Amino acid sequence: MACVGCEIKEEAAQVDVEALIEEQLSLETNLVEAHILEKRLEICSACPFRVGTTCGKCGCYYKFRANLANKDCPAHYWQELA
């Protein structure tokens, strides 16, 4: 039997992050335009703070944050896109 913390980590590893992001984005109304999203994701993919699917600076799913017009990069890498 695994400890409670390990069980939680195992469950979290099985979550389909892309599906969660897609579901949440379907509820959002203030999204960036496709060309801005593409540039943001390009920056995130090369970011030294990215940890898997999350931002190491703020802890959010970076693909979700990149879609939101009212959010900025916590490491200020998106400033040139403004």
Protein traits:
mainly alpha; 82 residues; 4 helices
Can you describe this structure?
With 82 residues, the chain is mostly helical. It has one domain. Helix content is 45%, strand content 5%. It contains four helices and two strands. It has a two-stranded antiparallel ribbon. The model has no long low-confidence stretch (mean pLDDT 88).
Could you provide a short overview of the structure?
The chain is mostly helical and 82 residues long. The protein is built from four helices and two strands, in the order αααββα.
Order of helices and strands: HHHEEH
Mean pLDDT across every amino acid position? 88
**Mass-distribution shape:** globular
The whole-angstrom Rg is 15 Å
Number of beta-strand segments? 2
Q: Strand order across the biggest sheet? A: 1-2
